[in-house]
Amino acid sequence: GGRRIPDRREALGLVRIVESLDAAIESLGGSRSVELWVTSARPLERTLTFDEARARLAGEGEPVLIAFGTGWGLAPAVLSEAHECLEPIVGERDGYNHLSVRAACAIVLDRLLGRR
Question: What angle do CA 13, 67, 4 make, to 5 degrees?
Fold first, then answer.
């Protein structure tokens, strides 16, 4: 795909594959150097709104690593390690909030980093 779409090659050149979430955190300086934010399709006890998250990302602070779950979500151990949980993505219609990880990631990144 990089020959057909050169921008894709540039973007994928930034990707670093690691064995686990712990390895990703360590590659960013360890748990004292990075905040772990998680996502969930259901509201959790502590939830950071997208507006609050945007403000935090705009300010000074530790780098943020956002973990996205699949199918059944993230493991309870990952959720308990997280510094923050982003609010669920909710549509206009009640009762359906399942998205592919690709779609959820795009929506979250747009809500956090997109032009307003």
Answer: 30
- Tell me the backbone φ, ψ of residue 85, rounded to 5 degrees: -120, 125
Nearest to 44 by CA among 81, 87, 105, 99: 87
- Helices and strands (H, E) in the chain, number of each type: 5, 3
User: Pick from 71, 85, 84: which is nearest to 39 by CA?
Assistant: 85
What is the pTM assigned to this prediction?
0.86
3-state secondary structure 3-19: CCCHHHHHHHCCCCCCC
Q: What DSSP character marks residue 66?
A: E
Report whether 88 contacts 43 (CB < 8 A): yes
- Both tokens of 110, joined, read 């747009």
Query: What pLDDT, in 10s, does the model give residues 57-113?
Result: 998 889 999 999 887 889 999 999 999 999 998 877 766 667 888 999 999 999 999
